[in-house]
Amino acid sequence: MDLLPDLWRQDYWLPPGVTWTDMEQLADSDRPRPRDLLVALPLALGFVALRYVFERFFAPPMGRCLGVKNRLQVTAAPSLKLESFYTQRSRQPTQSEIISLMLSCGKTQRQIETWFRLRRNQDRPCQTRKFGEAAWRFFFYLTAFMAGLSSLIDRPWFWDHRECWRQYPVQPMERAHYWYYMLELGFYGSLLLRISVDIKRKDFKEQVVHHLATIFLLSFSYCANYIRIGTLVMLLHDSSDILLESAKMFNYGTGWRKTCDTLFVVFAVVFLVTRLLIFPTKIIRTTLVLSMEVFEPFAGYYFFNILLMVLQGLHIFWAGLIIRMVYKFLKGKLEKDERSDEESEIEEEEMDKGGEENMDHGDRYWEKSKDTLNSKLSMLTNSCVLNNLTNHRSSVADRMRKAH
C-alpha cells in the first residue's frame, strides 16, 4: 500500500490546476516543505528544558515579589492501607468502600473521610507551581505576540485580507514567518509532552483537543502554504492569552486584587472581541469566502476550514465560562478562575470541615455548646410550664367568678 504517495497527492493540498512543479518556481528557502516540520521536534524538547529552568530559577523570585505564598496544608496521617487504596483504586471511595475501610483500618467513617480529603489536598498544586506555569506562558505569549506583530505590521495582508490569496499558492515564505511557525509548533508540542504532568483543570479534554487542533492546523497550513492566513490566526490567539496569564499571575499573589480584576475585565473584552467577533467575521470569512475569488474548493480547503471551525467551537465553550465569571464578578462573588485554578479530578472541598487537628477542638466546643444549649432549653421549658399553669389558674378563677 503506497500510503505516502497518496497522502501527498497534489489535489489534496493544492487548488485545481496547480501542481507541485508550480511550487518549485520558488527558491528552496522561500518554499515551505513538509520536512521542515521536523525542526519543531527538537524545539519542543528545548522548550521543555527551558521551561524547567525558568520555573526553577526565575519564577520563584518573581512570585516572591508579587507575594505568592503557599497555603498551609495539614498532611494526612500515614496509613499503608488507606494509601494503597488511594493510589491503586480510587481517590474518592464510595460509601460501601468506606465501610470496608472502616473494618480493615479500625477507624470511624469521619476519620476515613477526613483522611481522603486531606490526602487529596496534598496532591493539589501549590500556588508557586501554578504561578510558575502562568509566568512561563505569559512570557512566551508576550514574546511571540511582539515578534509576530513586528513581522506582520507592514505586510499588505495584515490590512487587506484579500492579499492572503494573491498568487496563491506560489507565494514566497519569509524567514521571519518560518521561525514564527516553528516556534509556535514547538511550544504547543511542548505542552503536549508535559500534559501528563501539568496541572489538570476542569477543561482538560478541551485543552487536549485545542493543542491537537492547533498542531494539525499549523502543520497543514504550513505544508499547503497557508502561511499568510496562519500567521494572522496565531497573532490573534496570542493577543488575549497574554492578558489571561498575566491576570492569573496577579491572582496568585497577595494584595493585587484590583490589578487582577482590571486585567480580567480587559482580558474578557479582548477575548470576546477577538474570538467571537474578529475570528469568525475576518479569519473564517477570509478562508471560506474570499479564497473562492482565487481558486475552487479542494480537499485542503475543506480540511483547513474544519480545523478553524473546531477552534471556533472551543472559543464558544471558553466564552461561556468567561461570561459566567463576568456575571459572578459583577455580583461581587468572583473568587477564582472557572477553569484554571481547580483540578478536574478533585471535587469542591468543604472548607468549613477543617483538618484532623481541628476535630478534637471542635468536639470539645460542641460538648460545651451542647451543655449550654441543654441548660437554656431546660430554662425555657420550665418557663413555658409555669406560664401554662398560671394561665390555667387564671382561666379557672374567671370561670368560678362567672358561675357565682
TrEMBL record:
<keyword id="KW-0443">Lipid metabolism</keyword>
<dbReference type="InterPro" id="IPR006634">
    <property type="entry name" value="TLC-dom"/>
</dbReference>
<feature type="region of interest" description="Disordered">
    <location>
        <begin position="340"/>
        <end position="364"/>
    </location>
</feature>
<protein>
    <submittedName>
        <fullName>Ceramide synthase 4b</fullName>
    </submittedName>
</protein>
<keyword id="KW-0472">Membrane</keyword>
<dbReference type="InterPro" id="IPR001356">
    <property type="entry name" value="HD"/>
</dbReference>
<keyword id="KW-1133">Transmembrane helix</keyword>
<dbReference type="Pfam" id="PF03798">
    <property type="entry name" value="TRAM_LAG1_CLN8"/>
</dbReference>
<keyword id="KW-0812">Transmembrane</keyword>
<keyword id="KW-0371">Homeobox</keyword>
<feature type="transmembrane region" description="Helical">
    <location>
        <begin position="262"/>
        <end position="281"/>
    </location>
</feature>
<feature type="DNA-binding region" description="Homeobox">
    <location>
        <begin position="71"/>
        <end position="127"/>
    </location>
</feature>
<keyword id="KW-0256">Endoplasmic reticulum</keyword>
<dbReference type="GO" id="GO:0003677">
    <property type="term" value="F:DNA binding"/>
</dbReference>
<feature type="transmembrane region" description="Helical">
    <location>
        <begin position="37"/>
        <end position="54"/>
    </location>
</feature>
<dbReference type="GO" id="GO:0046513">
    <property type="term" value="P:ceramide biosynthetic process"/>
</dbReference>
<dbReference type="InterPro" id="IPR016439">
    <property type="entry name" value="Lag1/Lac1-like"/>
</dbReference>
<keyword id="KW-0444">Lipid biosynthesis</keyword>
<dbReference type="GO" id="GO:0005789">
    <property type="term" value="C:endoplasmic reticulum membrane"/>
</dbReference>
<feature type="domain" description="Homeobox">
    <location>
        <begin position="69"/>
        <end position="126"/>
    </location>
</feature>
<dbReference type="GO" id="GO:0050291">
    <property type="term" value="F:sphingosine N-acyltransferase activity"/>
</dbReference>
<feature type="domain" description="TLC">
    <location>
        <begin position="129"/>
        <end position="331"/>
    </location>
</feature>
<dbReference type="InterPro" id="IPR009057">
    <property type="entry name" value="Homeodomain-like_sf"/>
</dbReference>
<keyword id="KW-0539">Nucleus</keyword>
<dbReference type="GO" id="GO:0005634">
    <property type="term" value="C:nucleus"/>
</dbReference>
<comment type="pathway">
    <text>Sphingolipid metabolism.</text>
</comment>
<comment type="pathway">
    <text>Lipid metabolism; sphingolipid metabolism.</text>
</comment>
<feature type="compositionally biased region" description="Basic and acidic residues">
    <location>
        <begin position="352"/>
        <end position="364"/>
    </location>
</feature>
<feature type="transmembrane region" description="Helical">
    <location>
        <begin position="138"/>
        <end position="158"/>
    </location>
</feature>
<feature type="transmembrane region" description="Helical">
    <location>
        <begin position="301"/>
        <end position="323"/>
    </location>
</feature>
<feature type="compositionally biased region" description="Acidic residues">
    <location>
        <begin position="340"/>
        <end position="351"/>
    </location>
</feature>
<keyword id="KW-0238">DNA-binding</keyword>
<keyword id="KW-0808">Transferase</keyword>
<feature type="transmembrane region" description="Helical">
    <location>
        <begin position="178"/>
        <end position="197"/>
    </location>
</feature>
